[in-house]
Amino acid sequence: MSKPLVGIIMGSQSDLRIMKEAAEVLDELAVSYELTVISAHRTPLRMVEYATEARNRGIQVIVAGAGGAAHLPGMVASLTSLPVIGVPVKSSNSVDGWDSILSILQMPAGVPVATVALDGARNAGILAAQIIGATDKALGERLDSFKKSLQTKVEAAAKSIEAN
Ligand code: RP5
Questions:
Q1: Using H for helix, E for strand and C for coil, what is the string for 88-121?
Q2: Tens digit of each residue's pLDDT (9 = 90 or more) over 119-140
Q3: Distance 23 CA to ligand 1 centre (A)
Q4: pTM
Q5: Where substrate is bound, by residue (predicted)?
Q6: Where in the chain are the domains?
Q7: Which of 47, 86, 91, 151 has CA atoms 20 to 30 A from the CA of 144?
């Protein structure tokens, strides 16, 4: 695929089971991406390097997933003016994922992270595509078809239920 437009990063390899859903939907929408592991706590300098160089490398949106004390999305957002979409990953059962949600969602004024639902990596991928599709006409048309396919599925389900 061509030069990556979306950077999908995650705090640990253990997040991949969730974060691969962002990659899968970007494949469906034919949007180029890269996928890697960057830990805010275990590899802080790698995080700084990635966030500060992403724009110059042609990345347009960053999708960052993490769990627990999920500081990766917020810290990356503090280091770049690219849009950052945060995916709270449910990494432990102790507090039902609220640790991940709140540590990504509750950003201070001036440093937004667009936070999706718990384990909502698929929506993060779609949102990343929509941000790029705002100015990329061909991608915008693919997204219109994608939305239409959601509508068609619901209408088919409604017909099937009504027929019984
Ligand atoms: C976070 O801690 C990661 O994003 C992951 O969700 C969680 C657990 O990481 P591992 O201990 O599995 O590496 O940093």
A1: EECCCCCCCCHHHHHHHHCCCCCCCCEECCCCCH
A2: 999 999 999 999 999 999 999 9
A3: 19
A4: 0.96
A5: 12, 15, 42
A6: 6-139
A7: 86
